[in-house]
Amino acid sequence: MSAITCSHVEKSYGATTVIRDLNLSIEEHEFVVFLGPSGCGKSTLLRMLAGLEDISGGEVSIGGKVVNDLDPGDRGIAMVFQNYALYPHMTIFDNIAFGLKRQKVPKAEIQQRVEAVSKTLGLDPYLGRKPAELSGGQQQRVAIARAMIKTPKVFLFDEPLSNLDAKLRNHMRVEIARLHQSLNTTTVYVTHDQLEAMTLADRIVLLRDGRIEQIGSPAEIYERP
Ligand code: ADP
Ligand code: ADP
């Protein structure tokens, strides 16, 4: 069954249309990458999947339900942003626990889940620190931990590695691929980096000017004669 469906999705800002009649079906457990040059509409489309952006026309469904009809907490989605979006005054523990605290999850369970997720991502030594005391890669891991702890059905990543140096980027790319496998989620990942797309994607959605230019496996897109 399809995890995410876009049906005739349109997005305009005033007179400017940035997504045009976009149709797409993403299967459960698929890793889909939105690839394309800056300004082609990748982030806008991802934010519409997340329900963070109003849709000007058409419909986005997640798990068979229209996304705008769902309560934000019930969408089963977690998003990781390029700039990490951590709370600077909170400890790493509290950053990771934030969503669970808001859901009034019991304290003991929060403690146990934060520790489990932190162990998976190698963050356990840093739980008492503030974000500014961590490296970029560690901060990105906190952002991923905060998303993971919600046990989402769908993981959305918006250029998560752009602010990291090349070595960390390679390392985190492998980690993200491993997390997708082990958590068995559906993942949608936005990048303008062809290497990231080719190494991560089951399918690449190549966007240009708000339309799908091409869609297929990395081999179908890059190894055509
Ligand atoms: P990408 O992620 O591919 O770089 P975006 O989705 O961020 O592209 O942007 C697509 C287009 O929509 C761009 O031309 C951008 O200028 C425009 N855009 C994005 N957000 C807004 C906004 N809030 N108001 C007006 N135009 C916007
Ligand atoms: P409260 O939620 O009332 O602030 P808690 O008993 O949940 O109190 O925890 C107190 C604080 O200690 C947390 O907010 C968190 O910042 C920190 N904390 C809890 N567990 C750990 C841990 N394993 N490592 C580091 N800091 C922790």
Write a structural description.
Helix 2 packs across helix 3 (107-120) and helix 2 (92-102) packs parallel to helix 4. Strand 9 and strand 10 form a beta hairpin. The chain starts with a strand and ends with a helix. The model has no long low-confidence stretch (mean pLDDT 92). The strands form 2 sheets. It has a 6-stranded mixed sheet, sandwiched between helices. Strands 2-1-4-5 form a 4-stranded antiparallel sheet, covered by helices on one side. It is globular. With 225 residues, the chain is α/β, with parallel strands linked by helices. The protein has 7 helices and 10 strands. The structure holds adenosine-5'-diphosphate (2 copies). One adenosine-5'-diphosphate (ADP) binds at residues 91, 93-94, 107, 111, 115, 127-128. GO terms for molecular function: ATP binding. This is Sn-glycerol-3-phosphate ABC transporter ATP-binding protein UgpC.
Ordered list of secondary-structure elements with their pairings:
Blueprint: E1 2-13, E2 16-27, E3 31-35, H1 42-49, E4 57-62, E5 65-66, E6 77-80, H2 92-102, H3 107-120, H4 136-148, E7 154-158, H5 166-183, E8 186-191, H6 194-200, E9 203-208, E10 211-216, H7 218-222
Bound molecules: adenosine-5'-diphosphate (2 copies).
One adenosine-5'-diphosphate (ADP) is lined by residues 13, 18, 36, 38-44.
